[in-house]
Amino acid sequence: MTLAIIGGGQLARMMAEPAAALGIDLRLLAEAPGVSAAQVIPAHTVGDYRDLDALTAIVAGCEAVTFDHEHVPTEHLHALEAMGVAVRPGPDALVYAQDKGLMRTRLGQLGAPCPRNAIVTSVADVEAFGIPCVIKTTRGGYDGKGVWFVRSAADCADAFASGATILAEELVDFRRELSALVARSATGEVVSYPVVETLQVDGVCREVIAPAPDLAADVEAETEALARRIATELGVVGILAVELFETTDGRILVNELAMRPHNTGHWTQDGAVTSQFENHVRAVLGLPLGATDLRAPYVVMVNVLGGVSDLAGAYEKALADPSVKAHWYGKEARPGRKVGHVNTYGDDLEDCLTRARRAAAAMTTEGMEGDA
Amino acid sequence: MTLAIIGGGQLARMMAEPAAALGIDLRLLAEAPGVSAAQVIPAHTVGDYRDLDALTAIVAGCEAVTFDHEHVPTEHLHALEAMGVAVRPGPDALVYAQDKGLMRTRLGQLGAPCPRNAIVTSVADVEAFGIPCVIKTTRGGYDGKGVWFVRSAADCADAFASGATILAEELVDFRRELSALVARSATGEVVSYPVVETLQVDGVCREVIAPAPDLAADVEAETEALARRIATELGVVGILAVELFETTDGRILVNELAMRPHNTGHWTQDGAVTSQFENHVRAVLGLPLGATDLRAPYVVMVNVLGGVSDLAGAYEKALADPSVKAHWYGKEARPGRKVGHVNTYGDDLEDCLTRARRAAAAMTTEGMEGDA
């Protein structure tokens, strides 16, 4: 079995671990030499994911093609499908992760609970929608980029200057953020992971707690069912991450969709029977999916932002806790950059949090206080 | 951090998984293009492990060098050490895994319990030692090769015809075989895994049960302590596997030593907090070692011998059990060849065994009955 992956970031790198275990050959289209996944996938080519010829070359002889990111142009995905390539997730699903405007429209049709939203083309539109609000480019944003919090009309300037299509959404009064991860195989089989709590700072995921503490059982069940329904209705193949708000009045609203292994699922590597990366690989190849059960009462993930140049020195401290599981992406240290993460698990949530935060702090020169 | 590995078999391949997770760069000297580990380690060179120039080239710029097998000539390891390379395990330790005669002498000096043994140079020597017995080449044997069971003088012919140095050992009347795995870091830190029960057929490991069922607590503790002491006294760096007999009269005797990740430790990938492969990599780089605790009451490993050409078809059946963890080495199917293994874990040992055997059987065309 041979699987092509487009994009050489850490998600592709982390797909390579279960792919190696399962004996699945990978081919990678990397954006530059030496990027994260190119360090661990021998059969890689450097090329542009916007170049149909590069895409066509990498998928030749592969059972399927999947993605490290959602930026491949939809028309290229359709072109590959027309050639008979198994594009997973396919363009008809992926477009809802690529375009927040289409996503909101489709989720509205499905009756999925969303923040109030509208496409806006002018400051007057935003004022009519209601300020304060959030405005976002419908395409291309990630990790807080392409998102503006609007507290006065002046805050809209950058967004409209960008020339992008802009979506306005109500400012949700939320208690916390949650994430519901599901895997859907090319066979149609769907499995769901326990709903997790996520801590985002400036639009960047910092910590994840699995399962989400004190989430009412009926809300947990409804949220898993919602994510499964979205995956099926949208025809997703692979991992679907549904990022959610839990509002102060107890409602669950869909914030974002991602159709690939997701930062809010990194805990599964050490905390679930089957990691999201393994289930993504199994799903896109149409293999049976693995169990999603937790392997401990609590699992915590803490991201490492920034990084260090002396990894061995960092590990002297971070791995002094013998039960910490460290993950490093092979990326150069840079302020605010996601360069790794730490997983811990156990019976005591506070202990897991303390240990994971301590280990993650040892793996970066970046203070947690300064940039929060 | 960069680590060189000599030998491109499945042990090197399985070291690559935790190395990728930890952000450790690997360089591989592979014996041929496309071998198991070369499929997952981009920085590989094809060369001969008996060629000092090839060894010297691969270790340049690496923090340490370690091994997929024990066949690198001792004089080359000394030459690398003389150049300042961190050879782990070093030649002064590794020689006891390479040469069973030296191993028996050294273990005797340490007072480690061993079967009665003697170097023999003629059939008369063997008769004087006592028939029945086992005779073995002191160097180069593995998986039952280079081992002869002597029930009459005629059974010695092949051994002496080989021209190799031959060790005779008493035929041990054993209840079962056990294995004690420890990791020793370059810093001197030692950790031990729970002692496991192993089922060998014709000298080839078939199944492993962790922990060894019904092993008396004091025997378990003494056996772990014995393995830790051997690792320390011999100056092992990395994983040491001590294969043992539990005799019908309740004694523990050392059978073999291996100084690398070992088939009897594959269960740790899915059943321990830290896998033997991760601890090997951490040990040889002088990093702190990870916890060796079991993650379930029972863990079972079953080897896949022989294999299949249609892996996807095999996975349809093997992975229909969503909690089975399958491992495949990327090797071509061949009768009796180790091509993969399956791990299962849970509260019920019989259930784990049944599930692992069923999944392993689905991954090979080789019947378990025919070749036992």
If you had to describe this structure to a student in words, what would you say it looks like?
The structure is a homodimer of 372-residue chains. With 372 residues, the first copy, chain A, is of the alpha+beta class. Chain A has three domains: 2-87, 3-Layer(aba) Sandwich (Rossmann fold), CATH 3.40.50; 116-170, ATP-grasp fold, A domain (Dna Ligase, domain 1), CATH 3.30.1490; 174-362, ATP-grasp fold, B domain (D-amino Acid Aminotransferase, Chain A, domain 1, 2-Layer Sandwich), CATH 3.30.470. Helix content of chain A is 31%, strand content 27%. The first copy, chain A, has twelve helices and 17 strands. Chain A has helices at residues 10-22, 52-59, 74-82, 91-98, 100-110, 123-129, 157-161, 217-234, 268-271, 276-284, 311-318, 349-362, and strands spanning 2-6, 25-30, 44-46, 64-67, 117-120, 133-137, 147-150, 166-170, 174-184, 190-192, 196-201, 204-210, 238-247, 252-258, 298-305, 325-328, 338-346. In chain A, the strands form three sheets. In chain A, strands 9, 10, 11, 12, 13, 14, 15, 16 and 17 form a nine-stranded antiparallel β-sheet that branches. Chain A has a four-stranded parallel β-sheet with strand order 3-2-1-4, sandwiched between helices. In chain A, helix 1 links the parallel strand 1 (2-6) and strand 2 (25-30). Chain A is globular and about 55 Å long. Chains A and B meet through helix 1, helix 11 and strand 16 of A and helix 1, helix 11 and strand 16 of B.
